[in-house]
Amino acid sequence: MNLLNPPKNDYTDYYDIARFGLAWKINVVLTGVLFLISIFFFFNQKTLFLEYLAGCCISLTGIIYLVVTKRYIVVSYFMLAFSLLLLVISLFFVNNTPHIIEPLWLTIISIFAYFNLGRIAGNTTSVISGLIISIYYLFFLDTNATILGDPATFNNVGIIIEFSLCIFIIGYIISQFIKTTANAEHRSRIANEELNEQYRLIQLQNEEKTVLIKEIHHRVKNNLQVIISLLRLQSSEIESEDTKIQFSDAINRIMAMSLIHQKVYQEKYLSQIETSDYFKTLINDLYQSLHLTNSVEIFVTSKLDRVGLKTIVPLALLVSELVSNTLKHAFQKEGEIHLSFSSANSGYFTLEYRDNGKWKNPSEVSSFGLQLIDMLIEQLEGTYTKISDETGTTYRISIVNLDV
What span, in angstroms and rounded, lies between the C-alpha atoms of 386 and 373? Predict the structure, then answer.
């Protein structure tokens, strides 16, 4: 079994896998090398022996914790804390040895913190390391210089081994960082290519669905036009004027729905209809279908950009019923119809319908038409007020936007 291969773990994120592997490999390498160095100094310098043995024990504890818990973050913080503590003890309390390798160890600890624990931990460790070195050189440099001047205090072999180990660890962490970054960029590039391909497929599917939906609306519109034509043919054979009026009302209601489907397949946004243009067309079609001789001006203003299909169907039937009643019963020669929409909030909007007609006989309006108006307002979860006086009739209707 290769000891440098990390144990199995549950990490799925590539960065977590790389950090776990780095924590494992550094602990394994440090445990082995520091143990050998401690044995070397056991026969030469007992103080350094204890220092390196303590470092070996810290790394060994990290290995055991990784095997048991697989939590590299805890091990990383543990290594940082005890490594900094060990270096502080070495710099400020071990006076019989030159301290020329400790700055390298502090550099390693900072690099390791950046890689395994992120920017905040790395910055914090770098500041602490800088403070440790600054305090040491401010207050203990003279003592270190004295030791460096005594060749008897040097153990060249031990220093060379430790220095080589530090350089190796720094290079290894940097190589792991470069490798991890390169792999992450490669994975990101592959993921972007897959997303672009999926986006392209989704676009193609949406285009196909859009064409199909438009075709469906077009066919529904044509079918409703056929029904309208059949009703008109049938009404031409009817002698009763009341029945003809009822047929005409039914035709106008179907025409309002047919116009919805016509607008949908002409619109760019299939789920919504532009209100101002739709209702202008609807009212003009109603006016022409009734073959009236009087002149009526129609004004439509809308602060609503678009209305969804759930709302537009009952709303169109409601407007159609209001306009039909006005055109048939309110105007003798000429008149005006004002239709305006305003948004109250995200879930509601207001419809104000106003005409300046003087009704010849309000009782002529069919009870079914009035019931239909009430029913459609109820379907739209709305409430309304109606004002009729010598200036005309006004409906002010608060409506729930069913598509929100």
Answer: 12
Task: List helix spans (H) across 72-140.
Answer: 72-93, 102-117, 119-139
Element containing residue 392 per DSSP (H, E): strand 392-400
Q: Classify strands 383-389 and 306-308 as parallel, antiparallel or unpaired.
A: unpaired
Distance in angstroms (rounded) separating the CA atoms of residues 364 and 351? 25
Structural Rg of the chain based on CA atoms: 43
User: Looking at 136, 154, 172, which one is the last position of a domain?
Assistant: 154
H or E element, residue 354: strand 348-355
Q: Is pLDDT above 90 for 128?
A: yes
Distances from the Cα of 236 to the Cα of 60, 223, 327, angstroms: 100, 20, 22
Q: Examine residue 45 and state whether it is found in any structural domain, yes or no.
A: yes
With pLDDT > 90 as the criterion, what percentage of the chain qualifies? 9
**Residue listed under structure tokens 């079609």:** 285
pLDDT digits (tens, 9 = 90+) for 220-234: 888 888 988 888 888
Using the structure block, give the residue that is written with the tokens 């031409």: 236
51 Cβ contact partners less than 8 Å away, ≥ 6 residues apart: 86, 89, 90, 94
Q: Which of 154, 187, 205 is where one domain is finished?
A: 154
Could you tell me the CATH number of the domain that includes residue 338? 3.30.565.10
Ramachandran bin of 291, using left for φ above 0, alpha for ψ from -120 to 50, beta for the remaining angles? left
Total domains present in the chain: 2
Is 68 inside a domain boundary?
yes
Greater model confidence, 145 or 252: 252
Q: What is the DSSP letter of 4?
A: T
* pTM higher than the cut 0.70: no
Asked whether residue 172 is domain-assigned, the answer is no
DSSP 8-state secondary structure symbol assigned to residue 149: T
Structural domain span for residue 315: 273-404
